[in-house]
Amino acid sequence: MPFKVALISMPWPASYRPSVQLGALKAFLNLQKIDVDTFHFYPEVADAIGIGVYETISSSSFTSEAIYASLLFPERENIIQRFLEKEIKRRKKRLPVKLTEIREKIKKLHKRHLRDIEWGRYQLIGFSICISQLTSSLYMIREIKGLYPKIPIVIGGSGVCEEVGRSLLRTFPEIDFAIQGEGELPLLKLCRSIESKSNFDIPGLMRRSSREVVGGGYQQIQNLDYLPPPDYSGYFDTLKRLRSLKNIIPAIPIEGSRGCWWNQSHRGEPLKACRFCNLNLQWKGYRAKSPSRIVKEVDYLVRRYGSLKLYFVDNVLNYEGIKEIFEGILGLGKDLEIFLETRAQIKKEQLKLMKKAGVKEIQVGIEALSTSLLKKMHKGTTAIQNIAIMKYCEEVGIINSANLITCFPGSEEGEVIETLRNMDFVLPYRPLEGIKFWLGYGSAIASYPKMFGIRRIYNHPIYKILFPEFFYKRLYFMHKGYVGDRYRQERMWRPVLDKCNEWEDYYKRMKSLSCDPILSYMDGGEFLIIRRRIKENQNELHRLRGVSREIYLFCDTPKHLKRISERFCNISQEKLLNFLNSLVDKRIMFKEGNRFLSLAVREKLY
Known about the structure:
The protein is an alpha/beta fold. The chain is built from 23 helices and 26 strands.
């Protein structure tokens, strides 16, 4: 009888896409002759409570964790109930059903899972725990272990790295093993060890021994091209049974790389990464599939699952392979709809190619509109670079769903003023979402708190509401609280958050009048007409002729004054600078130091 494994993904991931973790592990273990069943319970929960309700809950990590915390610790139901009501109200959301009704529907669904699934036929049960999946996984682990105490349970995923996983093993006896980092090789060797009843000294695997947690480290596949395409059959089989999700178009996760090429923390330099980021704790180094392999995988997965919607799960796009990847995807001749994440260094010509290949939405790691603050964050970018990518997305027609981090520890009033000033120049572009900084376990800020004015770090106090004191004190959580200049930061950054809301309202209002760009130009060959839409049938116009037109078009990408002077050497630098500054005063050009960027987008790009 073959060794049989059950892999489970609990709420609250997006219901419209399968778990890439489960898909990758199933395909890899199947290749090694290990039988794997995957259970995507989160779309079933979405079906049970309603997709709208599910999306409202899943949009907040603490709200998500609170739902299952009340099932995990029923004695805290009233405390958690009050927290949920306040949290939903604070976020100006509305739930059409009562929270008690949501919990009862979820509980009823999982009772059916426990009754109908033959858990006793598995030799190992694994849980993938990522964002917002902690309490839901702990709840199901406890329920399964209560019925089948002899079946070992292993946890893994980005939410159980390092001390977080160790603390879970120390605190919850229902958990037998925790995988740190990449799962394929440690999970395979764990299966072999259980099957042969040999020792469990496996790199990347943590376990209890004499009441202590031992093991750890990492075990990675160096060449990702050796991995088989992920197997999402379990998710698609689940969708067939769900009435309310029957007509959704699922997004197929595509994994082109692991880690982040900008992050150098694995080389013993933790400050050489984006200092707020803790997304790469599970990887040591950056690895990417070859462009040809990614294209073949896209073709295979689209054909197998009959969906044209793709979701690249990479923490950052493989910058070096952009041309080959998207020329290859374009060559497939499929009408794709693609989402991905990238850094701001991407060029306009690359964006044009991506658009043609089917990229509809990207999340650019913008984070700030102050170069000084970007340096503190170690983003490796500048404000003018960020504004340029926002402009390119607007021109090419790709949705840029980027964030603006506020309240960053150690930020100064001058950086707030710079941000507010620069926001005036980018109002014609899709608004950034203003978010407050949160401290993540394992980030560079958490590792070097004094550098950022942080005096003390502790588990976020909301976990005190969700977990009894015994658990709160013993566990490490991914979301941390801290003592520093937090209240000062919140006061300083309040105008920026208010302006983000105004920006969003302005953009929606202008786009409701016309889908045309808010700030655009049309080229007449010898002259240029720049138009800023003010309201319906009312425009602010600027006309540039001859060399003025040429200068404006030359600054379509950021240009240093020295380069502009060399290109237009017949014009004195004083006269040139006066002209450029006049365009800046009109907010149709942006200036940072001695670099200039024209802000109007071409109205008839295609």
